[in-house]
Write a structure and sequence with these properties.
- The structure is a homodimer of 528-residue chains.
- In chain A, a hairpin with a 5-residue loop joins strand 19 and strand 20.
- Chain A contains 19 helices and 20 strands.
- In chain A, helix 7 packs across helix 17.
- With 528 residues, chain A is α/β, with parallel strands linked by helices.
- Chains A and B meet through helix 1, strand 2, strand 5, helix 3 and helix 5 of A and helix 1, strand 2, strand 5, helix 3 and helix 5 of B.
């Protein structure tokens, strides 16, 4: 029902002929501004700009940059002084990199309307289930940096109250397809994933070399820490380079059957990384968003068989077996739809796994297990063997029930260690600092007794406060676990830090709540 | 259940004694950065800063600035070059203004945890009703710029699905008390408010001088346009200064019984302005948020009697009398609680009121009515008289039913015009441009027929696209209204603009949809 063109009075009353209009639109020369603005595209314009009347724009409004067919949406900041000249447009680093045009190139700028897909976000906020096409449009806009932070937050919060099964599938698929889709020329490509929350739980770095030593393909991509003191990528980076591109990753996997790389550089499900960067500061964490996030990465990674580790414990992400069961169903539902064989194991999430919390401390734990060091963490070794056993049994040539024995054989014989060294060599050296934080303090038992509870969430926060994962050598070394008897003054754990202010903050936090419960002998009571 | 201090091993293992820690925290000198970042507090730090290891910080992370007891939360940008020296911290204009310390002052910077009240926002997202104390803490943090955009969006979207009556009252009160609370020494302080959506509906500028000429106190504060092409403050600014402070406003009201000022400078319910700045780009618009927004302003303005204008029409904010009824109940509920006598009138919201859409065009309409110009818009005059009649009857000395006659007398006699001139003089001259946009185009009827519908939303958008309210002389002059017969080629309305690109955009939009429905004579059909 468009208005016929002949309804317009043409140019009769026009102060300027319309055909002249677009050709007279002034242009600005782009200038690189050395400003790291994180995920956001930010541009800077002079208030005295001759190209556009800047009174049209307010700080933090959204604008579109155009050069030929190339368009970039960005957030606008306005300056009065010499930061940019009136005929220039400053592009902060991320915007400059994404626009990918040389400094001095001419661009036009115009106010950018919000992406059309925001209509669907508003519909979601008002309770309507979205179609696959609507979800695909939202994910496409998000992965192309067309959403502002507040728009992403609106989508996440609007979806947090309810997401239908169809919406979950559509979201998973759209997120996977928005980035690299890896293909492998093998019928079985295995993967493992832990939903996180348990300090020190660095099993992938033991499971991958075992499984790869057996000859199964396990191209593992991992995340960096989001809310924890170390992700597998952060810990692996203590030993080897992890920021491999797709081709480099493929070379490593071809040579070693497996790898341990950071997913961020491979561009698997990039929208997921953007969503997480908003979920994190808002502490949003819903089951559907977790499943879509993980399964989109696995779908994009080309996995055929996925083992999921769901730790259950009072301070873990899952507090009960019932919750774990419901989450398992959701993972299986999505796995079935996309043809990924999903196996779920629930594990003990009551306390840290291993002794170290923080990248360097965890890497020490991992290498001790692989080297069959008698002092290695027994729980980390056993859990890794159990998970590897499940994965090995995906090999059709392995007898049912023999996975554990095979895993143990590969570990005890040194084959797994040798495979890990091969993977480390193939990925190349990292330039991460590997020394432990020199500022330390031991947290001691207040009285004789038995450790009856450890607050995983608390230890994670303390290790982060002490500087992990940014300071790889910061974190916590755990001395006592649940069931251990302790004497008054005996160290429960040790804090490591590099930075005085972070050390202070961690110590202040420990004074409020250490994360340990020690039940005393008769008359001593209980301490936390 | 704090961990006893004696559980810490003291300084035995510390690389640095803890008592030294805070005194060694390095300081940065603040430097003013000429960057308009809108509402957000933004600071810039060098990646080579000696004060803090910048690897701890990422772009767009939140930091706290401290100088003695003064604290400011801000979003951090990082630079590699000479924008700020390593021992400096750049403060963008809004942050510099709010921190209010001279350039060169020493400050410390630390990573800022999210405000505690965000826990309540997360509870709200997960469906819990909030206590008054929780809502007060949220509003306090928002009005002190402690929330990022995405955190504000999370609160708004989380509240959009459900808000209890108690939450609504608590939100209204907390928002009112977060800013200036005006007090007047009169028992009756009247106010009027329209929920908006109808182009050209500038009745306040006629109602205020009528009511003030009668001697009732009507200290009117208005908003600038949010999504419309003109707010009352924008239109009044064509005639007089509107950015008066509290004391100036009180002087005008004492001298004239009334005023027409912008609420923004008086700092009434400042959290509301911040919430609106996030609601607007997200197009969030719930009943509860609307009522809390309006009633918090009226509560803060010290109004005792409030007349609410609720336009109903297919493209108005309220599409049916039923919707208007439900909204009325909500306004009355909140008014009763706070002792404000609320009266609600539903009005015709099917089409624009008056002829002008945009500040200058609307100001011309208003002055024509006040001057009893025979060519003045009849609908604007009648609606204003009707609203003024309701307000005048709050005067205990006026007989019931005589309000309309009194209003008409004050208008026809020129007393209202005289009062308006007095208010304009008292508020002082504005330096706004008052000429009409010189680029014009007439939109003509495509065939003979009768105008049967006008899309208010569409005309609002077209007038905004043409440059209103930023260009005060941009907008639309309406020639034909619903029920008018038109001949083919006869102008329906005229677009005014100053800027070629905006003129282009408006014309392109008109070609898609003009906003008018003309039902043709037999055989001509219908056009929109």
């Amino acid at each position: 029902m468009g208005w016929p063109a002949d309804m317009l009075s043409g140019n009769r009353n026009l102060g300027l002929r319309m055909t002249d209009a677009s050709s007279t639109r002034p242009q600005l020369k782009i200038r690189r501004i050395n400003l790291d603005t994180g995920r956001e595209n930010v541009v800077v314009m002079s208030r005295r700009s001759k190209a556009l009347r800047p009174e049209v724009f307010r700080g933090f409004s959204r604008v579109g940059l155009r050069r030929d067919a190339k368009v970039l949406l960005a957030t606008l900041l306005i300056t009065d002084d010499g930061l940019v000249a009136p005929d220039e447009l400053g592009l902060a680093e991320p915007a400059f990199r994404r626009f990918a045009e040389p400094a001095g190139s001419a661009v036009t700028v115009s106010p950018a309307p919000p992406p059309d897909s925001l209509d669907a976000v508003r519909a979601k906020i008002h309770g309507r289930a979205l179609s696959a096409a609507e979800i695909t449009a939202i994910v496409d806009d998000i992965s192309h940096y067309r959403y502002s932070d507040m728009e992403i937050a609106a989508f996440l919060v609007g979806s947090a109250s309810f997401m239908s099964s169809e919406e979950l599938l559509a979201l998973t698929q759209a997120m996977a397809e928005a980035g690299t889709m890896l293909k492998w020329d093998r019928p079985i490509v295995v993967d493992k994933h832990c939903i996180g929350g348990i300090p020190g739980n660095r099993t992938s770095m033991i499971v991958v070399p075992i499984v790869a030593a057996h000859g199964l393909m396990i191209p593992k991509t991992s995340s960096r820490a989001i809310t924890s003191p170390a992700g597998t990528a952060d810990t692996m980076e203590v030993l080897a380079r992890v920021d491999l591109g797709v081709d480099e990753m493929k070379e490593v996997v071809t040579a070693c059957h497996g790898c341990l790389v950071w997913g961020g550089h491979v561009n698997l499900s990039p929208a997921d990384d953007i969503l997480i960067s908003v979920e994190r500061p808002l502490f949003l964490d819903t089951r559907e968003q977790m499943v879509a996030s993980i399964m989109s990465k696995k779908l994009a990674a080309g996995s055929t068989h996925l083992l999921l580790d769901l730790p259950v414990g009072p301070a873990a992400k899952l507090a009960s077996a019932m919750e774990a069961m419901r989450l398992r169903k959701l993972f299986e539902f999505v796995g079935d739809h996309f043809g990924i064989a999903v196996e779920v194991v629930t594990t003990d999430g009551r306390q840290p796994v291993g002794y170290g919390i923080g990248p360097v401390l965890e890497a020490q734990d991992v290498m001790a297990v692989l080297a069959n060091d008698p002092a290695a963490a027994h729980d980390l070794r056993e859990k890794s063997l159990r998970l590897a056993a499940h994965l090995l049994e995906y090999d059709p040539d392995l007898r049912g029930g023999s996975g554990y024995a095979r895993a143990k054989q590969l570990l005890d014989s040194g084959a797994a260690l040798k495979q890990m060294e091969k993977i480390i060599d193939a990925q190349g050296p990292s330039n991460a600092r590997t020394e432990l934080g020199p500022m330390t303090a031991d947290i001691e038992a207040p009285h004789d007794g038995v450790v009856t509870a450890i607050d995983c969430l608390r230890l994670n926060r303390l290790a982060r406060t002490a500087g992990a994962p940014i300071d790889k050598g910061a974190g916590i070394r755990v001395f006592k676990k649940i069931g251990d008897s302790v004497e008054q003054g005996e160290p429960l754990y040790r804090i490591h830090a590099f930075d005085v202010s972070e050390f202070d903050l961690a110590m202040a936090a420990i004074r409020i709540k250490s994360g340990y419960v020690v039940d005393g002998a008769a008359g001593h009571g209980k301490s936390v």
